[in-house]
Amino acid sequence: MAALAVVGSQWGDEGKGKIIDYLAKKADMVVRGQGGSNAGHTVVIGGRKYALHLIPSGVMNEGTVNIIGNGVVFDAEGFFEEIAALEKDGIKTDNIFVSDRAHLVFPYHKLLDALSEDARGDRDLGTTRKGIGPAYMDKIERSGLRVCDMLDAESFREKLQAQIDAKNRVIEGIFGAPPADKAKIVADFLAYAERLRPYVRDTGVMVDAAIKAGKNVLFEGAQGSMLDIDLGTYPYVTSSHPISGGFTTGAGVGAGAIREVVGVTKAYTTRVGKGPFVTELDNELGARIRELGHEYGATTGRPRRCGWFDGVVLRYSARVNGTTGLALMLLDVLGDFDELKLCHGYARGGKTISDFPASLDALAAYSPLYLTLPGWKCDISGCRDFDALPAAARDYVKAVEEIAGVPVKIVSVGPDREQTIIREEVF
Ligand code: GDP
Ligand code: IMO
Ligand code: MG
Questions:
Q1: 244 in Cβ contact with 317 (< 8 Å)
Q2: Domain coordinates of the chain in residue numbers?
Q3: Is 13 a catalytic residue?
């Protein structure tokens, strides 16, 4: 069996899309198990950039089966927009399957996401406003509609109408906002239901069969471990489980199915949306990283907050994921700095901690402890093997593995598929 999970080690946008596309050339199947169209996974092939949201990043590899698993909240509107964009670019989309158990995101979820965020004022979470939280709320509250509900038009119409009536009572009564357009939503979703029919499968059966047949199955994480609803920086998190454990419920596989867990990490740290971030550089240095790394969200276009590498986050993330190897991304972005800092612990007064605390108030009292290393001051984006990197860059990679306690198996030196250094095969 060769099942590999690729997860975000930080707060998302670590470069998962790039590395999944790279590894997908060897994958028979790529499986998403959580999140929805809040994800923005960038794949660059021969200088051409593609942004994927719901569709797995294996889609660029012909022959790879792409699964949207039961744990994903499925935005039908976004899905067909993505399919159209891929087809326009000549990419085949006949190898994509959607779980009949996936919950549906409706326009009223997006509206409620926006209304809740606006109502929070300064205490907003900075969500992507893609309806993720409200859709998972319905799932957990047991009132959500699933892809399988779409397959019987008459009962789907009735269930959807009842849902829209219920949501409009909240939208109008609590938020004082104009109601969602019932007739339009029903008509649009009955049309999506017909178009979706050929994509729908019991995907858990497909994943199980692939694993049992010894095929290479790659589980594609969305978001990042620090955005996990249980283990992240709550409440500044998403509403699903981006950690490796999320695939057992999100794809319907047993806990023992995943053999290797690759934690994707930036060589520095970014975060988009609100919430604490100990190594943040809210200054000129952070702005320089943002410009050099083109750190603007693939889904919302928002500028990402930037800071130094945080080893406390990485160690925590490695523990909760069972990470067996790291993919260290965007190392090339650091080629312009005289010196570089890596956080290895947090300090408060004379006390230091090396585990990530639960309480954000407690976290706010800590400041980072740094190891300072010299920069390499050159362009490394053309390097294709580890030994070709300047000594200072190799030392930086070694410091990351020492602080994180996990070997760096892949180093990425540019956004393109080809700008990848494999130190140890993961598949
Ligand atoms: P994801 O959500 O984890 O898939 O990451 P995003 O696609 O949202 O953000 C990562 C960004 O970094 C994208 O613009 C990628 O094209 C880019 N990227 C990925 N790896 C590298 C790298 O090694 N170097 C540089 N310069 N850019 C990279
Ligand atoms: P990928 O897969 C980075 C963040 C949002 C916000 C919080 C909650 O591209 O790494 P949500 O819309 O999920 O309710 O927002 O989570 N967030 C992401 N940040 N990358 C992502 O996905 C994200 N998906 C959600 O900015 O802080
Ligand atoms: Mg992203």
A1: no
A2: 3-94+217-262, 103-196, 264-422
A3: yes
Which two three-digit tokens encode residue 136? Answer: 């998972």
Q: How many CB atoms lie within 10 A of CB 385?
A: 10
**Choice among 41, 103, 109, 241 that is catalytic:** 41
* Cis amide linkage into residue 242, ω under 30° from 0: no
pTM of the model: 0.97
CATH of the domain spanning 103-196, picked from 3.40.50.300, 2.120.10.10, 1.10.300.10, 3.90.1170.50: 1.10.300.10
| Of the options 3.40.50.10790, 3.40.440.10, 3.40.50.2000, 3.40.50.1010, the CATH number for the domain spanning 3-94+217-262 | 3.40.440.10
- Ligand 2 touching residue 223 (CB < 6 A): yes
Q: How far apart are CA 128 and CA 115, in angstroms?
A: 12
Architecture of the 264-422 domain: Alpha-Beta Complex (3.90)
User: Does the active-site annotation cover 53?
Assistant: no
Tokens of 340: 């570089």
Average pLDDT by stretches of 10, the chain with 427 residues: 91 98 96 98 94 97 96 98 96 96 98 98 96 98 98 98 98 98 98 98 98 97 98 98 98 94 98 93 97 92 96 98 98 98 95 92 94 98 98 98 98 97 95
